[in-house]
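Today's session is about reading a structure prediction critically. Students often jump straight to the picture, but the first step is always the sequence itself: look for stretches that repeat, for charged clusters, for runs of hydrophobic residues. Only then move on to the predicted structure, which in these notes is written as discrete structure tokens rather than atom positions. Here is the chain we will use throughout the hour.
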Amino acid sequence: MMDQDALKNLAVETLQSPRTAAQKIMSLNLSRDVLWSSLVLVACLNSIITGLSLMLGDSSVLPVLLRNPVLFFVIFAGLQVLSIHAFYWTGLAIGGKGDLGDVLALLVWLQALQLVAQGVLFVLVFVSPGLTDILAMAISVFALWITVNFLTEALNLPSLLHAVGAMVLAAVGIAFGLMILVGLIGLGAMGVPANV
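Below is the predicted structure for this chain, in token form.
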């Protein structure tokens, strides 16, 4: 079990040296039960912060699906599960030799860090909305960079370019999976009339 200082150090190391941090996270050998439960927890907390953010702004421009915190949770958690599997399988398809548990552990950790960042952005929006937008963009770019490094390490890919390729291929699979997920939830939940 890691204490609070160890988690802070790991978070800093993730930002400074993502591949080294990835090796440390994978060496924890967390069980799949712990990892999947952590993914659900992160998705739940993300939905709460997003719901609070939507209460502050004009959410009428969003589809009904995204205004409902429970449906947002289902979409967010579903998208995370799709992402994990898409990254894993596309990584294997292009020559990777990793383990699904490693990909899961690293992406759950990244989502936990993004959750902390989202909490900071939520507070910062009261101080400076313009700065919040710039910081949100920077966090997104940095998270993408960390993801590329994490995938390279988790799937034992020969280069960062292979990880980028896996992400592009996975994006196609994720888009397809998201269409299926939205179809299962129903277009009526999105506010689209049934006769369209």
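Discussion point for the tutorial: Residues 80 and 128 are 30 Å apart (CA to CA).
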